[in-house]
Amino acid sequence: MYYFYILKNDEGGLYFGYTSDLKKRIEQHNSSTTRTTAGKHWKVIYYEAYYSQSDAKHREYSIKLRGNAYLQLKRRIKNCVAEAD
């Protein structure tokens, strides 16, 4: 399985990514071994599971473009983002 995921930090920042091992990846983000997320505490607020790595990677790419896919997802999970505070 592969996962597209969204993390939120204590300052309200969001991070989008994909991985084959969600638990390990979150631990990496929180242990400051990942340059882009170092120094902050992150928690998973949303994820999607895929059988194909290319599907998970494509989902991450489409969300990072901040186009329609991002706006649709943002509307769909707005309560998840708010409740994660």
TrEMBL record:
Pfam family membership, one: GIY-YIG
Residue ranges occupied by any GIY-YIG domain in the UniProt entry: 1-76
InterPro entries: GIY-YIG_endonuc, GIY-YIG_endonuc_sf, UPF0213_domain
Family: Belongs to the UPF0213 family.
UniProt protein name: GIY-YIG domain-containing protein
The species this protein was found in: Candidatus Yanofskybacteria bacterium RIFCSPHIGHO2_01_FULL_41_21
